Amino acid sequence: MGRAGTALKQALEACGISQNKLAVALGTDRFKVFRWFHGQIDPQAETVAEIVKALNDINPSAAEMFVQLYLGDLVDRSE
């Protein structure tokens, strides 16, 4: 499973967000979100930004968790 898919799965499950809800927020096919969620494919870089925006609209905590899980130590918010 790719890093983005793993991060997305953890964030959605932790925040109780369904794959369908994210798909609707993104205006994309539910099957595409399913494939990300299950690590069959990873979203492209542009799509990762769209995922963060959509998650932020649904639940800002989920967006923050996704970014932290996906980027990890690359983003240090303390600076």
Report on this model:
- There is one protein chain.
- With about 80 residues, this protein is an all-alpha fold.
- The chain has a single domain (about 5-70), classed as 434 Repressor (Amino-terminal Domain) (Orthogonal Bundle).
- It has 5 helices and no strands.
- The protein has helices at about 5-15, 20-25, 30-35, 45-60, 60-70.
- Helix 2 (about 20-25) crosses helix 3 (about 30-35).
- The chain is globular.
Give a brief outline of the structure.
The chain is an all-alpha fold. It is 70% helix and 0% strand. The longest helix is centred in the middle third of the chain and has 14 residues.
Secondary structure blueprint with pairings:
Blueprint: H1 3-15, H2 19-26, H3 30-37, H4 45-58, H5 60-71
Helix pairs in contact: 1-5, 2-3, 4-5
